[in-house]
Amino acid sequence: MTMNQNLAALQELIDVVAKLRSPDGGCPWDLAQTPESLTPYVIEEAYEVVDAIKSGDQNAIAEELGDLLLQVVLQAQIASESGQFSLKEIAEGIAQKLIRRHPHVFGDVTVASVDEVRQNWEEIKAAEKGEPSPENQKLSTKLSRYGRSLPPLTGAMKISQKAADVGFEWENIEGVWEKFHEELAEFQQALAEETPEAQQAELGDLLFAIIQLARWHNLDPSAGLQGTNQRFIQRLQKMEAVVNRPLSDYSLQELESLWQQAKAQIAQEGT
Fold first, then answer.
1. CB 73 within 8 A of CB 18
2. Which of 84, 130, 210, 234 is such that its CA lies 20 to 30 A from the CA of 111?
3. pLDDT score, position 69
4. What pLDDT sits at residue 193?
5. Which pLDDT value is given to residue 239?
């Protein structure tokens, strides 16, 4: 596909989104959206791209990348309607950023390894933002970036690992288990006596403690939870394959029996 064909395809998408957002004959749903209301879709589409890439299905990858691109174009369209910025500023901004942060490609800097590329990138990034170089940044500054930019489970793992690297760590695994049981008790107490806000806070503390246990045992909490999600769905599929009416028509005892049968069947298939 030529450059002109790529640009024509992108322009068609821009025109379609503009039509959807047009007060004259546009789509009511699209017109009702705001940058904030679309945030969950940005995250959802990004995850679906990752899932498609893992699957290796090229058609699925292309489709999901299209869905993610739609979110970028839609955000740009909404912003342009109020004169904030457009897709032009977005594209120009990222192109110039890539040029600035790759002086070994677009300038006269020489690098000897991927690590040097990464180090240069971080130093240039810090300079652009008026921040100290990475090695001179406060730990809290580094960790706040992980808290903002990473999914909560991944961010918590990264934050705790970086804190441990500077010595903010338990002496042994027994201390981690003590912390877990402490947070579990506080969560239980909050559920019984505290406000929803306090309960939410204690739930977060408990999850953070579980992540510390995972880190100490070199386990990935995100991968672990993803596997649990997949197994739950797989067992439901097995249950639905052997029933002749909606699951909501069954009693809890019947559902538990079906669940155990599905679990045993999956275990047998895996042997």
1. no
2. 130
3. 98
4. 96
5. 95
Name the region of 219 (left: φ>0; alpha: ψ -120 to 50; beta: rest). beta
CB neighbour list of residue 170: distance below 8 Å, 6 or more residues apart: 176, 179, 212, 216
For residue 160, the surrounding DSSP H or E stretch is: helix 152-165
Residue 186 tokens, joined: 């506080």
| Tokens encoding 14 | 């821009």
- Any idea what the Cα angle at residue 200 is, between residues 197 and 205, rounded to 5°? 130
Distances (CA, A) of 271 to 18, 166, 258: 54, 44, 20
Q: What is the pLDDT of residue 271?
A: 67
The rounded distance, in Å, linking the Cα atoms of 271 and 268 is 5
Strand, helix or coil at 229?
Answer: helix
**Amino acid at residue number 262:** A
Interval 54-87: pLDDT, tens: 999 999 999 999 999 999 999 999 999 999 999 9
Is pLDDT of 219 > 70? yes
- Judged by average pLDDT, the poorest of 33-42, 86-95, 187-196, 261-270 is 261-270
3-state secondary structure 53-74: HHHCCHHHHHHHHHHHHHHHHH
| Rounded CA separation 237/269 (Å) | 14
**Which of 198, 202, 160 shows the shortest CA–CA distance to 185?**
202
3-state class of 113 per DSSP? coil
Of 207, 157, 212, 166, residue with least CA distance to 186? 207
